[in-house]
Design goal:
The chain is mostly helical and 35 residues long. It has one domain. The chain has 1 helix and no strands. It is rod-shaped.
Length: 35
């Protein structure tokens, strides 16, 4: 695993991307449309 130092903006973007994927998977598992 590589650990790189990034700016706060990139950290925030990564966290948002992670949470968006989690919400997307929740929507899929719950059977609700994501649109």
């Amino acid at each position: 695993i590589s650990i790189a130092r990034v700016t706060e903006d990139l950290k925030i973007v990564s966290l948002e991307h992670f949470f968006d994927n989690s919400l997307f998977l929740k929507q899929l598992t719950s059977g609700c449309p994501f649109h």
